[in-house]
Amino acid sequence: MNNSHDLRLIIESRIPIIIIETWEERRALTLLSKLGVQLAKPLYAWSASDGLRRADLVDSPSLPQTTSPEAALKHIRATNSPGLYALCDFHPYLVNEPLNVRLIKDIAMQAEAAKQCLIFISHALQIPAEFKRMTARFTLSMPEDHKLLAAIHREAQQFAKDKGRKVRTDRRALDKLVSNLRGLPLQDARKLARGAIYQDGAITESDIQAVNKAKFQLLDMDGVLSFEYDTESFAHVGGLLKLRDWLQKREAAFLQTQADAPKGIMLVGVQGGGKSLAAKAVAGMWGLPLLRMDMGALFNKYFGESERNVREALALAETMSPCVLWIDEIEKGIVADSNDGGTAKRVLGTLLTWMAERRQAVFVVATANAIQHLPPELIRKGRLDEIFFVDLPKPAIREDIFTVHLEKRGYSADNFSLEVLAEESAGFTGAEIEQAIVAAGYTANARDEALSTAHIVGELGNTVPLSITMSERIDALRQWCKERAVPAD
Prior knowledge:
Layout: H1 3-12, E1 17-21, H2 25-39, E2 43-47, E3 51-54, H3 69-78, E4 83-88, H4 98-114, E5 116-122, E6 135-138, H5 145-163, E7 168-169, H6 171-181, H7 186-200, E8 202-203, H8 208-219, E9 225-228, H9 241-255, E10 264-269, H10 275-286, E11 290-294, H11 305-319, E12 323-328, H12 331-334, H13 343-357, E13 362-368, H14 376-379, E14 386-390, H15 395-408, H16 418-424, H17 430-446, H18 453-461, H19 466-469, H20 471-484, E15 486-487
Parallel strand pairs: 1-5, 1-6, 2-4, 4-5, 7-8, 10-13, 10-14, 11-12, 12-13, 14-15
Antiparallel strand pairs: 2-3, 9-11
Helix pairs in contact: 1-2, 3-4, 5-6, 5-7, 6-8, 7-8, 11-13, 15-16, 15-17, 16-18, 17-18
């Protein structure tokens, strides 16, 4: 994208009002100043602190009595000479300000004859309906990879100058840093690269998670979309061998954005069976940031807000690319009921459109407990690559799960009879096995005894697993998945 070329086309199309939503006000004004020279039009900028002044001349004084929004707009309306007028941080003066709206509309209607153009520059702008049809939106492009790499090199050179030693790194870590800085303005990218370098004088793969955390905070993505800091590696997931093998085969294609790169998967299974852990493990295995979409937080009481929430969340996920987007319990947001006024259907339509048209490297991991209720257009091939069924763990997998959770708590699995534990935990999910170990630990402490196999067996005997309390539902799920899904193990 060529910012100068594209913005010049909009201006030359004589569109009277241009909207630029950006945090980079200085960059936008610099671009407009250059275009003003090319088009032989002066550039005026307005701010609440300075009023109107020539922004393309050094040390240009403010025009008298133009500090208030109303006075500035009246001055522009009364001026018949050509010009570009950049109004910075004007958003507070558009909402519930009928006089300002009327003045802007007047200026827009005379703009073609006067060869004027209003450019609103702000981090966020709500455009009144009165002149919305007279506007065009322009988005500043984000820096390309070679510019990000050059920015990192400049920060490394500055570090060497300040500290008297070179920055340690390798090509893989450097490429990952560039990849994870995509979607940020150059100024913010340099700030994050500087933080990674000055922390320990090196750029390593261990810096990537901190960079992604800081990037998430800069983008202000809290709410419907959250950043998952705890992405488990697949070494901490018991079983799921077929899923793990599937992901390993496709990792390079996704990270290198090759043709036919994978789009995503659906994980369906018993509650507590490890679907959420598997979603985290995908990001950990591929070394990518994990974003979680909260389907329950999507719905807003105001008409159209839920769809807007989805669009904003998906756009922000693309900004964080390459990344893994975990849509947890997807059925909660897209399965319609009689009281939602069609919201679920509209949310589904927004999601399906994005899944078909997205161009950025966003790998979707959708988890569901009731896949039989999902619409067929979502789960068909082409939207997602595969549906994996996470069943109750088999005996060998249960041994792995016991080993993981015992060693996670500082116990050696060699001191326990894993075969006995696996046999006694038939029908248990991974979450239920973990809770049995936790409960057994409390029991052992209360008796002032070392945790043993007997303690855990006792807790297993006191637990009624979900496979019994909800046996009918689990049997129906297994039957559905038998011919429609691939076993994760």
